[in-house]
Structure formats: structure tokens, C-alpha cells
# Entry
Amino acid sequence: MKAIVVTDQAAGTAGVKLVERPAAQAAINDVVVQVHASGFTGDELTWPSTWTDRGGRDRTPSIPGHELAGVVTALGYGTTGLSIGQRVFGLTDWYRDGTLAEYVAVEARNLAPLPGDVDFTVGAALVMPGLTAWQGLFEHGRLRAGQSVLVHGAAGVVGSMASQLATWLPSTMRLLPSTGPSGSRERRSSVFIREDRGLPKRPRRLQFTRLGPTTESVSRFTHHSTIKEQM
# Structure
């Protein structure tokens, strides 16, 4: 199969090559997906997981990219919940070969069915921004019914996802699109969650910083910490 690989971290994007690689093989609980659309993160070539396995051993040449949408073509032993020919989207493991290839082997648990009326490119673009917004609102922000939500920077990819997810609960929401200073590439998006009975002295604030063309990563945070991602 054709795939984009990297072998030299110092070379950056100049070291990216299109090559022939062995066909992806499904391990236990895996599926093989024919990739119709995939995503590549702007600074993914700086991530340790692009170059080494979990034991710290070199795993190059590696295939970057982690977001995908496509069609299941093979099932690994013991795989359940998905079927051959099914449209799916999701994320691959950071320490395994990624999605910049014709086919990719991925754990079935990291995929979800893609509705027939959703384009593959939309499915691949949804995954990480949607996950970032979900984690910010419900896991870290602990949004509950009846709370008020302010999505600052709602016109951005994560902000637009956060605004849609917030309406899933009967909450009060206010949207504020924003951009950075004139000539700046940086745009910030924050989510403020107000408690049911008035605004506390220090409301929980979930802040997103956008610096480039694609989604970067989600970092763990508690109070007034930052999630960095690229749009």
C-alpha cells in the first residue's frame, strides 16, 4: 500500500516521503480501515510517540496522522461491534502507525460508525476538535443541566463544537466569536461555566489557544489551565 512515512526527526516535514509499505494487518480486537480521509497535526513530528514506542525504542519509519474516516475492510480475531463494509471514523493510537496511508490497522474501540449522510472529510475533521470540546465541557468542566455556559471564540472549530454540545443539555449559553490582535495568527477560545445559583468568585475557565491549521493536542488541566490545539 502507499503511505507517507517519516524517518528523520531533525528533517521535519522535509523528511516526509511517499513510499510503498506492507499492507496493514489486523491484530486481536483490531480492524483494518480503507482510509478515505485523514488528518495530520501541525506539530505531530515533534511528538515522542511519532518516533518511539511505549518502551522508548525507535519505531521508524513511522506513518503519521491519527484522525480518519473510511470503510472497514478486515476484522481481527475477537473483534466485535463493527462489520466489514461499515463506514467509520475515529482516532488511531499515538504509538502505532497512523492514517496517512491507504489502509490502517486500528483498535475497534477507537472507532465509531459514520452516518451515511456525513462526508468522509467531515468525519475525519470532526474527531479531535469534538473530543477536545467534549472533554472541556463534560469531563473537566463538569457541565450539568441548568448551568450557564459562555463559549468565547465560538466561530472556531473547537468553539463551534462546544456550542453544539452544550445545547445537548438544557443549559443557558452565550456565544462570543473572537480573533487575535490585527495581523496575529493566534486566536483564543474560552469556555466559562457558571454554577446554578449565581457566578462564583472564580468561575471555572477552560481555555483553548489556536496557533495553526490543524488540531494539535489535549492537555490535562484542573483550574485555569490551558488546552492547546491548532485549528
